[in-house]
Specification:
about 425 residues; mainly beta; Immunoglobulin-like; Cyclophilin; 4 domains; 9-stranded antiparallel sheet; 4-stranded mixed sheet; about 10% helix; rod-shaped; binds calcium ion
Amino acid sequence: MIRPLTLGAAISLFLLAGRLVSFAANQAPELYQAVPTLTLASGAAAAPLTLSNYLRDPDVPGTAVRVSVRLGSQTADLYLGLYDAAAPLTVANFKNYIISGAYASNFFHRSVPGFIIQNGGFRFLSDTTYGAVPTSSAIQNEPGISNLRGTIAMAKLGGDPNSATSQWFINLADNSADLDAQNGGFTVFGRVLGDGMANIVDVLANVTRYDASAFNAAWNEIPLNAPSLARANFIETNAALVSPLSFQVTVDDPTLVTASLTEGVLQLAGSASLAGQTTVRLTTTDLEGGGLVSSFPVTVLSSSPRIAWRQTYFATTADTGTAADPADPDSDGVPNLLEYALGTDPNSAASNALPSVSRLTTPSALLTLTYKRAASDLAYVVQTTTNLADSSSWTAVGVDQGIPAGDGTTIATIPYTTGLRFLRLHVSITP
Ligand SMILES: [Ca+2]
Ligand SMILES: [Ca+2]
């Protein structure tokens, strides 16, 4: 089906006088919002972090596209940043052609040096057959951004502003005077990123053009690497949606925190047996090799039984609100720390088993305080005083603290004499 092109001479090149407008050189990725301070329970995973919520490429506020270009045996990746906010319908339309596969094995079929180079109209179906890119409905025109050098815009039918379908072009020069108003204005919906114009597009625009209109009416200015319509001679392209940023992660202490990355989502998990703080380091790279290294601390909490208890009853490891040690969510007068010490349910007053006092008949000079040592990481001391008004008068002098039974039940014995005497069980957090 493909025939050699028999026309002898290439069309002579003509350059439009045009002011060259270049965009700023590549800008490196930036951290635009601080990563939250992360505190992990021992053995627990942090909520996944979507890194695009914190890092961005200032050059690519919207969708990023990679156009892989083949010219002869050379290949190169051209990157485009789309203007999703300014031209939403056009960007959605362009993305749909990529997602459907319609922009696979396309080629530049029209080249006008100093003006534009055009694509999106035709594709190879095999090495020897080609066809028109299957088009969806024409889209509403969205003009507004100027057709400057390096921008990309949609091609249209003459005299119909709302006729763009699949064909798009790259502005090789400042075409604003010609294209911003003509036919309702040509919709700019993105631009070539970084050095792509100088390094790739300008090279393509210098490829010799031929008049192959005898073969296809639209190919009267087609750039070919050699004067024959063999597939190898076309400037072939494949477009794909890409993430504007890629990431790598390392952790200073990987025994404390493990990190994994899946499509821009960072997952961190704390060690089940260690506690402490370490630093997570992220290397962010943009499409053109610009990089940023950022770091943030991650704390892994102790795996103490008390913290595990708090997690069990309150689904948090934080010592705040109803989970705080002094809090009393079941309003039974027993604060959480003592509930933990006694092995009772802090959310249910009915289950509490408070210490009990009795006076021994033999020997009659002793009281007992019976309670349960339910926690292995608390210190328990039974104390007495005869003067409740003096908080410094509590003492354990003379008290036999007792030995816990297998279930933690403990009987302390306290000397008893006539007169008032107060008892208390004092529990404290051991270091
Ligand atoms: Ca960049
Ligand atoms: Ca309570």
